[in-house]
Structures are given as structure tokens and as C-alpha cells.
């Protein structure tokens, strides 16, 4: 998750400098790759090493804009991409976006083709700080299902074994914004209000987690409700702070560092370990 003031380089950090080019992002040098292409490459590298398991990977791309969630891979009745959808909590306590589109992928290139498609639909406006300021939070979710492969002689004893399911969420947050500096008006001013409120809700969630409160206010924002599984539970959250080198943005940089300090104070029990299976044992 990349967090920081608008114009501080969050999308650059997550995607790299050449994501808008027609050529594949993966053609860039390793030094220029952003977090999302690096993560996609690493995921499929690890999958290739797991010869004893078969894996199925699906991608979904959502945008949180003005506290509404949009599926950027879905089409409405007129063929327009970007369909509004609801976030719910299932009976087992998991967060789910209803009727969300999932596209199967076979490699990192497939992942990035979908991500570029989603980024082109993302809401952007020009401000005094940034010519192409992202006005929404972008969430790329890779859902992975692993099935353990067994020999015929071992299959009977593991019929009841369930596949392992997990997900990796890669988040490019919209930037926090000082209205006086960005000079936004009208609809853009309304967007700024929703952005700052959702980031404040994210800070409140991290604060409640760090203080081990009995109630965590995930539902105060669609952003935190959508990311509940990745922020809480036994998930691991990596927060990347992006700050501007300009002296005039010192106050915003200090606010970003304060957010990071709050995030570092969050501690949770160790993640549950996967139970050993027969595919990890030799006969």
C-alpha cells in the first residue's frame, strides 16, 4: 500500500515510470519496475517452484471514488467499463465485493495488461500540485487457489482436504491534499473531501488496531471496509510512505510520517501456519 501526499510518487512507486507505454511494462529494467509488476513476477516465479501444487490465479481491479466502489473490469448494459458495486461482510467474517469481475491470468504479463486497463479508467484531474492527480484509491487483488497434487495411491486419504486460498492486494491510494495548495474547486473539491475522509478513516482503523480496541471501525469508510481482510486478521501489511522533497510540503510530509508511525505501532498475533499435508511428506 502506497500512502502520501498528492504528487509524491505513489503511482510511480506502484507501477514504475512507463506504465502508459504500449510496450509491456516488464520490458523495463529491473531498477525501474514498480511494486505491482515486481509482485506479479515474484508470484509466478514462486508458483513455478511449487511443482507439487497446481495454482489458479485470478485478478480483480476496483476503484474507490467518492466513497463508492467501482469494478473496473466490468461492463454495464451499454458496454461502459466501471460498474458500481457493494461491499459486504460474509457470514464467516470475510469482506466481499458483490458480483465482482475476476479474470484468470497465466503469467505476470496477463496481470499487467489488466492493471493498465484499470489505470486508464481511473478518475484523474489536474490540480496546482499535479497535472494528472488520481482522485480515487486503486485496489488490485490477486486471488490464488492452490491444489495439492497427489499420486493415485495417496489420493483416497486426502479427499476431504480443501484447497488453500489466499489473496494479495496491491493498493495505490489517492493522495492526501491541502485544498489551499491544490487550488481545487467544484467537483474536484468534493473529491478531495472524500479522499481525506477515507484516509482519516484508514488512520483511525490503524489507531484502533494499535490500541487493541474491542471495536475496529472498518465500516466508517468503503475503503477500510474493502481492505478489512488485508489490514486486520492474520494478514501482513506493507506500507510505503511517499514524501515530497519540496520544503513547502514539509507539513504534509510530517503528516505522512505520523501516519507511518501509527501503522508501525500495530501488532497482531503471528499468522496461522498452514497444516502440513501429504504433498509435503515423502512416503
Automatic annotation (TrEMBL):
Predominant location category: cytoplasm
Signal peptide segment: none
Compartments where located: Cytoplasm, Cytoskeleton
Keywords: ATP-binding, Cytoplasm, Cytoskeleton, Motor protein, Nucleotide-binding
PROSITE patterns: KINESIN_MOTOR_2
Superkingdom of the organism of origin: Eukaryota
InterPro entries listed in its UniProt record: Kinesin-like_fam (IPR027640), Kinesin_motor_dom (IPR001752), Kinesin_motor_dom_sf (IPR036961), P-loop_NTPase (IPR027417)
One cellular component (GO) term of this entry: microtubule cytoskeleton
GO molecular function, one term: microtubule motor activity
Family (UniProt): Belongs to the TRAFAC class myosin-kinesin ATPase superfamily. Kinesin family.
PANTHER family to which the protein is assigned, alphabetical: KINESIN FAMILY MEMBER 25, KINESIN-LIKE PROTEIN KLP-3
This protein's name: Kinesin KIF25 isoform X3
Organism (species): Pelobates cultripes (Western spadefoot toad)
Amino acid at each position: 500500500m502506497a500512502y502520501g501526499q498528492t504528487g509524491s510518487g505513489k503511482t510511480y512507486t506502484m507501477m514504475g515510470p512507463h506504465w502508459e507505454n504500449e510496450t509491456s511494462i516488464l520490458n523495463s529494467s529491473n531498477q525501474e519496475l514498480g511494486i505491482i509488476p515486481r509482485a506479479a513476477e515474484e508470484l509466478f516465479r514462486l508458483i513455478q517452484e511449487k511443482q507439487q501444487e497446481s495454482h489458479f490465479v485470478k485478478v480483480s481491479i476496483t476503484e474507490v471514488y467518492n466513497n463508492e466502489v467501482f469494478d473496473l473490469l466490468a461492463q454495464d448494459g451499454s458496454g461502459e467499463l466501471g460498474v458500481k458495486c457493494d461491499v459486504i461482510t460474509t457470514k464467516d467474517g470475510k469482506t466481499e465485493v458483490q458480483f465482482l469481475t475476476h479474470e484468470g491470468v497465466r503469467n505476470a504479463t496477463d496481470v499487467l495488461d489488466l492493471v493498465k486497463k484499470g489505470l486508464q479508467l481511473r478518475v484523474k484531474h489536474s490540480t496546482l500540485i499535479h497535472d494528472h492527480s488520481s482522485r480515487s484509491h486503486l485496489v488490485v487483488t490477486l486471488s490464488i487457489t492452490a491444489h495439492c497434487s497427489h499420486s493415485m495411491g495417496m489420493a483416497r486419504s486426502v479427499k476431504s482436504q480443501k484447497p488453500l486460498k489466499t489473496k494479495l492486494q496491491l493498493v495505490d491510494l489517492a493522495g492526501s491534499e491541502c485544498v489551499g495548495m491544490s487550488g481545487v474547486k467544484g467537483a474536484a473539491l468534493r473529491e478531495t473531501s472524500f479522499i481525506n475522509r477515507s484516509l482519516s478513516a484508514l488512520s483511525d482503523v490503524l489507531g484502533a488496531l494499535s490500541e487493541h480496541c474491542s471495536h475496529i471501525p472498518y465500516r466508517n469508510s468503503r475503503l477500510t471496509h474493502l481492505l478489512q481482510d488485508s489490514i486486520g486478521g492474520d494478514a501482513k501489511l506493507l506500507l510505503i510512505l511517499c514524501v515530497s522533497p519540496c520544503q513547502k510540503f514539509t507539513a504534509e510530509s510530517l503528516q505522512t510520517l505520523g501516519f507511518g508511525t501509527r501503522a508501525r505501532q500495530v501488532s497482531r498475533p503471528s499468522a496461522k501456519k498452514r497444516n502440513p499435508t501429504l504433498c509435503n511428506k515423502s512416503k
